[in-house]
Write a structure and sequence with these properties.
single chain, alpha+beta, four-stranded mixed β-sheet, 11 helices, 13 strands
Length: 393
């Protein structure tokens, strides 16, 4: 995203009932089950969901007490909690298959610590973190508000609120914001496609959701009715996995920064924290957020790279997009590596990632959330005092 100028920028979000998010939720449910039984379990779980069928596949290393039967039960419970009890996809009678098997010994030997060898990265790759002063959560505004709209509708739906009567779990949002001088000033359009009960009038759905959207946006930001697109294709009755196949890890831009920042390409859900696709992306967000929270810059992008089986990152790169307050990026790179051990073990221990904390990340974004009770620890800003001290602030 540009730092200056007059432009439009768009991001989308999808709800917990979107097919890909159902798959993410089940994969993270499997992960949490293993970590609850053994904090050092290894999990790489992929899920496929389609019409009345759920398939779990992947590799694990953990206690025998986490049985396939238990995981099948947990998958059903996840679908029930989302709200699917429909003819084409129901927690009660969907056919669930579990094809999880033991982790590859070749991967394990590279990742495990042994003798003088520290724990290595679970894969090669590049991970990005980003933060910006556009919102209080230090997230880009378009993805922040796209998430907020769907999260609010979800909360009302689960509460049985009449304001969203007849709406079902599957939904997508899209928010386009107008930027002037690189700062957002309002929405030029909002798109919301939401699954609903058979027979609902689209005018009634428009009337239901318009005020919910308006309350999620800052005062004066709401677009006109002619740019508010609610179910633009008409009926949206057949939805969720019955309407479209869902797979784990297909919403990586929704999960991160809505396209406002780079993405390394790796998905998060279903992966234990030895997989740097997940843990190092959390670390990069944590560092970028602390840099911005310390008022060292208005925007910060961080890239970290790894090689499979190697403990320490191959590179750490910081870009302040010309917004750094007399901060040398090379010095900042060195300082961040001194403040946080960026090996997989160091990240896990610093952010306390060996815990069953991942189900809440599976929808409405992994970043920009409120840290609490051990959840979303990478959203803390506890490095701010050290960063300010290092740069004489």
């Amino acid at each position: 995203m540009r730092d200056k100028g007059d432009f439009l920028f768009t991001s989308e979000s999808v709800s917990e009932g979107h097919p890909d998010k159902v798959a993410d939720r089940i994969s993270d449910t499997v992960l949490d089950a293993f970590l609850a039984a053994d904090p050092y379990a290894r999990v790489a779980c992929e899920t496929l969901v389609t019409t009345n069928r759920i398939v779990l596949a992947g590799e694990t290393r953990g206690p025998a007490s986490v049985t396939p039967e238990h995981l099948i039960h947990l998958a059903r419970e996840a679908v029930r909690e989302i709200g699917y009890d429909q003819e084409g996809f129901s927690w009660r009678n969907a056919h669930v298959e579990c094809h999880l098997h033991a982790q590859s010994a070749d991967i394990a030997v590279g990742v495990d610590s042994a003798g003088n060898k520290d724990e290595g990265a679970g894969d090669q790759g590049i991970m990005f973190g980003y933060a910006t002063t556009e919102t209080e959560s230090l997230m880009p505004a378009p993805i922040h508000y796209a998430h907020l709209i769907l999260r609010r509708i979800k909360e009302l739906r689960h509460a049985g609120d009449a304001r969203v009567a007849g709406l079902q779990p599957d939904a997508k949002s899209q928010v386009t914001l107008h930027y002037v001088d690189g700062k957002p000033i309002g929405a030029t359009s909002v798109v919301l496609s939401t699954q609903h009960d058979e027979g609902m009038d689209q005018r009634d759905i428009f009337a239901e959701v318009k005020p919910v959207i308006a309350e999620c946006l800052p005062e004066g930001w709401m677009c006109g009715d002619d740019q508010l697109y609610i179910n633009p294709t008409g009926n949206f009755v057949i939805g969720g996995p019955d309407g479209d196949c869902g797979l784990t890890g297909r919403k990586i831009i929704v999960d991160t920064y809505g396209g406002a920042a780079p993405h390394g390409g790796g998905a998060f859900s279903g992966k234990d924290p030895t997989k740097v696709d997940r843990s190092a992306a959390y670390a990069a967000r944590y560092l970028a957020k602390n840099v911005v929270a310390a008022e060292l810059a208005q925007r910060c992008t961080i890239q970290i790279s790894y090689a499979i089986g190697v403990a320490h990152p191959l590179s750490v790169y910081v870009e302040l997009h010309g917004t750094g307050a007399d901060v040398e990026e090379a010095k900042l790179e060195k300082t961040l590596r001194e403040l946080m051990n960026l090996s997989p073990r160091g990240i896990r221990e610093h952010l306390k990632l060996n815990a069953p904390i991942y189900v809440p990340t599976s929808a409405y974004g992994h970043f920009g959330r409120t840290p609490h009770d051990g959840f979303f620890t990478w959203e803390r800003t506890d490095l701010v005092p050290a960063l300010k001290s290092a740069f004489g602030r």
